[in-house]
Write a structure and sequence with these properties.
Blueprint lengths: L7 H4 L12 E10 L3 H12 L4 E4 L15 E2 L7 H8 L1 H11 L2 H12 L6 E7 L3 H18 L4 E4 L16 E9 L2 H14 L3 E3 L6 E4 L3 E4 L3 E10 L5 H4 L1 H4 L2 E11 L4 H7 L5 E4 L6 E4 L5 E8 L8 H12 L8 E12 L5 E5 L2 E5 L5 H16 L4 H7 L9 H21 L1
Organism: Alteraurantiacibacter palmitatis
GO molecular function: oxidoreductase activity
Pfam family, one: DAO
Length: 423
């Protein structure tokens, strides 16, 4: 079984006994493909609803983005409330935001219910990289209050930034008390243990090679087969390996993170006084937070080709030192990367074809939305699909260009917006 890629998260992971590979044929009510947040949540909720469940993971639990991401719990959807109102109208926008805003409660509830040790902290600060971004944030907070009576978000002016981030490059920001951050791999492992306790059979090192959807769903691996009444595809960037049509709905984006040496409580408090997670408003954003042992975990820069930079700390360091010049030359203990599934319009891609459900394309909002998505999938299996349909009815389309040109066209578009950031 392949080990986790080196990272601060892998080095500080909670104990979890590896699960066996699938061998032979297994029958159950629900088969889930993917051992990240979405798959684990769907499996756990389905088991609690009385279904017998098998979960197949190609590598290890949390091996993909769920175990490597920035750990940021960002409320809402990638689209602003203003975007949702313009596209869908006030009533539909309100319903979507009310549903999406349940996600934070669901994550915290799971952590508390199962005693998951994942360094949960509250608060998320979106830092305005331009004055125009701050003006848009002001309108957003007003609209959220008008639509939902949402009281957790507040505007911070430029003079108040230092109470949130020890950096001089921002023009203000939006602080949301309902956001937060956590240790992403330990959250995934905690969900996996909760699923095992609920009766889910988890198989690692069991890559799905084919999915058949007929009278029953059948998933084939190299050494076994699972036959079930329902299937769930929760593979994110690997979706195209088993369903090319769904795979074209998202594009993998490589993100890179570093973790510094422990900085000590005084230095850490000067960088992020509230201890909240921080992300800026650039298109190619910087995002960062403090670990439980006062390391700065910083993500910056993106690559649109699969090959990682030869030296990840050297790749990320300029972004880190631009935000925090006082950390110039700071020792970096860990550097790692991974792929995030991004949809064409940055909205999650959920749906159902026959008896097979799918959920992917979280576009940077996966820490919260995935846990909620698993709950909605389990509801739909039981015949109550109203809330599932709210997200499944969101628009989506494949990336243009077909099999050969979709990635070059995507790269060109992303580079254009990255250039606008710099200009």
């Amino acid at each position: 079984m392949q080990p986790y890629p080196p990272s601060f998260y892998a080095a500080s992971a909670n104990p979890f006994t590896p699960r066996p590979s699938l061998a032979g044929e297994v029958r159950c009510d629900v088969v889930v493909v993917g051992g990240g947040y979405a798959g684990l949540s769907a499996a756990l909720h389905a088991a609690e609803a009385g279904f017998s469940v098998v979960l197949l993971e190609a590598e290890r639990i949390g091996f993909g983005a769920s175990g490597r991401n920035g750990g940021q719990m960002i409320p809402g959807l990638r689209w602003s409330a203003a975007d949702l109102v313009q596209k869908f109208g006030r009533d539909s926008a309100r319903s979507l935001l009310q549903l999406a805003n349940l996600a934070g409660d669901r994550v915290r509830s799971r952590i508390n219910r199962h005693g998951i040790a994942c360094d949960l902290k509250s608060g998320h600060f979106q830092a305005a990289a331009k004055p125009s971004h701050l003006e848009a944030m002001k309108r957003e907070v007003e609209l959220l209050h008008d639509l939902l009576g949402y009281e957790s978000a507040r505007i911070v002016d430029r003079a108040g930034v230092q109470a949130y981030v020890g950096s001089a490059i921002y023009y203000g920001g939006l602080y949301d008390a309902d956001g937060g951050h956590l240790h992403p791999l330990n959250y995934a492992l905690g969900l996996a243990q909760a699923a095992l306790d609920a009766g889910v059979r988890i198989f690692e090192d069991s890559r799905a090679r084919a999915v058949e959807d007929g009278a029953r769903v059948a998933v084939t691996t190299d050494s076994g087969r699972v036959v079930a009444d329902f299937g769930v595809l929760a593979c994110d960037t690997a979706m195209g390996e088993i369903d090319p049509q769904l795979g074209r709905m998202t594009m993998p984006v490589a993100n890179y993170n570093v973790a510094t040496v422990p900085l000590g409580p005084d230095v850490a408090a000067a960088l992020i006084p509230t201890g909240a997670a921080v992300a800026d408003s650039r298109f190619v954003l910087n995002y960062y937070r403090l670990s439980a042992d006062n390391r700065l975990i910083f993500g910056g820069g993106e690559k649109y080709t699969p090959a990682p930079p030869p030296d990840i700390p050297a790749f990320v360091r300029p972004y880190l030192e631009q935000v925090f010049p006082q950390l110039a030359g700071v020792q970096i203990d860990y550097g790692w990367g991974g792929l995030v599934g991004v949809s064409f319009n940055r909205l999650p891609q959920m749906g159902r074809r026959g008896n097979v459900f799918h959920a992917h394309g979280w576009s940077g909002h996966g820490v919260l939305l995935t846990t909620l998505a698993g709950e909605l999938i389990a509801e739909a299996m039981r015949g109550t699909a109203e809330r599932f349909d709210l997200l499944a009815d969101l628009p989506g389309k494949p990336f243009p260009g077909g099999r050969l040109l979709c990635h070059p066209l995507y790269v060109a578009g992303m580079l254009y917006y990255a250039l606008k950031d710099r200009l």
